[in-house]
Design a protein that fits this description.
Keywords: Coiled coil, Endosome, Membrane, Protein transport, Transport. The chain is mostly helical and 166 residues long. 78% of the residues lie in helices and 0% in strands. It has a domain at 1-114.
């Protein structure tokens, strides 16, 4: 800002010198102004380059932290893989499934659930008890008649109200 204000003052001074007829001094002043403008542009470009460089450095630092984090994570995974093999994991899963099945059996026993063998034993005992209590009538030893006697017709029966009156 300070340089920009100084350049404006020199331009105004050059105009004044031209009005006063001092062309050579005005020309020298404009050359000085032009040199300072170029210097200002170079400085602005350098500042812009420095800002880009600082941003690149900051981004590179972030990338380095990410890479370091990945490296540490990779080392942790490798250590875990050394401790836990696939066979070990399969063994643990198998043991867990066995423990879950055992617990399920305990839960069923506590809840009163019966196994299929228990159900069969209970049905067999029920059949035995039923056969013991069941008394069948004796079967007649006489042969059955060849013809079934005809039932008496309904017309010959006495009417219910007559039976009740007598």
């Amino acid at each position: 800002k300070r340089l920009s204000l100084g350049l404006e003052r020199e331009r105004a001074l050059a105009r004044q010198l031209l009005k006063d007829g001092k062309k050579e001094k005005a020309m020298l002043l404009l050359k000085k102004k032009r040199y300072q403008e170029q210097l200002l542009d170079k400085t602005e470009n350098q500042i812009s380059n420095l800002e880009r460089m600082v941003q690149d450095i900051e981004f590179t630092q972030i990338e380095m932290k990410v890479i370091e984090g990945l490296k540490i994570g990779n080392e942790c995974l490798n250590k875990m893989h050394q401790v836990m093999s696939i066979e070990e994991v399969e063994r643990i899963i198998g043991e867990t499934q066995d423990a879950v099945e055992y617990q399920r059996q305990i839960d069923e026993l506590l809840a009163g659930s019966l196994t299929e063998e228990d159900e069969d034993a209970i049905l067999e005992e029920l059949n035995t008890i039923t056969q013991e209590q069941l008394e069948l009538p004796e079967v007649p030893s006489e042969p059955l008649p060849e013809k079934i006697p005809e039932a008496s017709p309904v017309k010959n029966r006495p009417k219910p109200e007559l039976v009740a009156a007598s």
